Amino acid sequence: MEADPGAVPGTSVRSIGGRLDPTPEMILTEAVGRLGTGSISREGYSVGITLQLLLAQNTQEEQLHAVMERILKFCAQNGLDLLHADAAVGDTLTGDVLSVTAFRTDTGSEKGVLLPGSDLYMAGYTALAGTGIVSCAAKEQLSSRFPSVMVEKGISFLKEGSLLLPLPEGCLKVWPVQEGGILAALWDLGEYWNVGLDIDLRAVPVRQETIEICDHLQIHPYQLFTCGACLFTLPPGTGELPDIRTEGGYKIPVAQIGKVTAQKARILHSGEEVRYLDKPAQDSLYVLCSTNINDDLEMQERIGADKLL
């Protein structure tokens, strides 16, 4: 039976982004272990995995295949359902980024339905990891426009973007925000459950630094690579926003960004502007690849030091 990334209330989502050092297996193990068992072993439920793999420039196709083969082998050996995987090479990257989301689902669970009227929430900031990546890659260009403290803050988002997200009880469905940003996640969620959406873009959690950095680089913050964030639904009229905190007590931003609708239209509001959600565009990381930005090795050094774990 096909696993479902949002089948069970109380699902825990763990997003981890990091350089493939020491191994992708360790990143997968940590993501699954943080579901609550403390290890890869478990009983009474299955685990589904989605991942986004962005490899550094000059990576050869055979290297990409080798990494994916290791991931597939690890999933097979440990009974993990690989629900979705995207892999690409970014010309602006000087270090690898792997974002893993592990979903805990009861054995035998079915896809189910996403009921119209459900309230749609977002936990975590959009585009944090992407902001960190572009801040490293375009540091010289950004430093000519912004104070160094702001550029360094943008770079630090690489680590912040890997925070863990324990979701509230009563959560109905869950969807990760990854490649293509919040707009791609909204489209994919609507397609997966064949529902419409009514979204207030102004309610999407986003850092001011992300907005200013993306504006200067002329890229779209809502189409920028994200990890450590997800969409989830609660029954209509739940009311008070859930208080979501990491294991260390850090408060995760949560916002109700819209509703699920019976109509198939996916509508975006931004003030008085109203438009329809389009099919996902190319991630802003790849848009930036076509520009002549600074090739900064500091990104590789920082990712290697932090490992984003």
CATH class reads Alpha Beta
Quaternary structure of the protein: single chain
Rounded to the nearest angstrom, the distance between the terminal CA atoms is 32 Å
CATH architecture, by name, is: Alpha-Beta Complex
SSE layout and pairing:
Elements: E1 14-16, H1 24-33, E2 45-55, H2 61-77, E3 80-89, E4 97-106, E5 119-123, H3 128-137, H4 139-143, H5 148-160, E6 174-176, H6 181-193, E7 196-200, H7 208-217, E8 230-234, E9 244-245, E10 251-252, E11 254-261, E12 266-270, E13 273-276, H8 284-289, H9 298-306
Parallel strand pairs: 2-3, 7-12
Antiparallel strand pairs: 1-4, 2-4, 5-8, 5-11, 6-8, 7-11, 9-10, 12-13
Helix pairs in contact: 3-5
